[in-house]
Specification:
Layout (H helix, E strand, L loop, with lengths): L4 E12 L2 E12 L3 E5 L6 H9 L6 E6 L5 H7 E3 L12 H11 L5 H11 L13 H13 L5 E5 L7 H10 L9 E5 L3 H4 L5 E6 L2 E7 H6 L4 H22 L1
Parallel strand pairs: 3-7, 3-8, 5-6, 6-7
Antiparallel strand pairs: 1-2, 1-4, 8-9
Bound molecules: adenosine-5'-triphosphate (ATP).
Keywords: ATP-binding, Nucleotide-binding
Pfam families: ABC_tran
Protein name: ABC transporter, ATP-binding protein
């Protein structure tokens, strides 16, 4: 029986000022999957997530979320960790929460309250400009997970968050999504999140170089981190050789 794909990417490319940032990405993610998007700085992870979320304008190819390809329809299905750059520094947390509940019909204020209590980052009356980096990231996580979305895209969600809290969040992350929802996480602390992941997708130099189930990787007696690093090294050698032949 064919499983249902929640995310389907066909030949997704993205260029900026004539520069290729994503090249022909093909990826299918089945419903319910938690997938790690891995790659070094500048590989294209954020651009891919922004393309899926419909925030990055000008992505080419087919981006399908639950059979919807339109940007408006996709935005309604996808909850992406927004940087909150659109809000002024003087905005109070409570105003941002109100904005979310007005803009996203699937935003649950109750769930937001549970998340913000759990992450414990201060009062609703605090202003965005007064939050520390970690506190702001906790706010972003709470806003993102408080939607009842089909897809959650968490782009380096633990940046600036202390290691104890990081572990606490990682341990509880799955419970904040519906069983059928897809969660895609990009993070540089691979060993910390690897226990959560059903699959990994690896991006290198604008290309998707691997997409594999973590169970298969572990069956080979390899850790996710070693698998990732091994693949990265392998590709570097290949590129060097192709350059030599040019
Ligand atoms: N606004 C922009 N203008 C021009 N180039 C950009 C812009 N944003 C990203 N890029 C380029 O696109 C490429 C991919 O960037 P992207 O942010 O998607 O990488 P990433 O994998 O998320 O990196 P990191 O792990 O550092 O967050 C980089 O080479 C970067 O220089």
């Amino acid at each position: 029986m064919k499983m249902e794909n929640t995310i389907e990417l066909k030949n997704v490319s993205y260029k900026r000022n004539q520069r290729v940032i994503l090249a022909n990405i093909n990826l299918e993610v089945e419903k319910g999957t938690t997938i790690g998007l891995l790659g070094e700085n500048g590989a294209g992870k954020t651009t891919l997530m922004r393309s899926i979320a419909g925030v990055a304008k000008g992505a080419r190819g087919v981006i399908k979320i639950k059979d919807e390809t339109g940007i408006v329809e996709r935005k309604a299905l996808v909850s992406y960790t927004d940087s909150l750059d659109g809000f002024s520094k003087g905005s109070k947390i409570t105003d941002i929460v109100d904005f979310y509940s007005q803009v996203y019909p699937d935003f649950s204020t109750n769930e937001y309250r549970e998340l913000s209590d759990f992450l414990d980052f201060g009062s609703d009356q605090q202003k965005l400009g007064e939050l520390s980096k970690g506190m702001k990231e906790k706010l972003v996580i709470s806003l993102t997970l408080a939607r009842r979305a089909s897809v959650y895209l968490l782009d380096e969600p633990f940046e600036g968050i202390d290691s104890m809290t990081r572990k606490k969040i990682v341990n509880s992350l799955i419970q904040w999504k519906a069983p059928d929802a897809v969660m895609m996480i990009s993070d540089h602390y691979i060993s910390e999140i690897s226990g959560l992941l059903d699959e990994v997708a690896i991006i290198k130099d604008d290309h998707l170089i691997a997409h594999e189930k973590t169970e298969k990787i572990r069956e080979q007696g390899v850790s996710i981190e070693d698998y990732y690093e091994g693949l990265y090294d392998e590709e570097v050698t290949t590129n060097d050789e192709s350059q030599k032949n040019e």
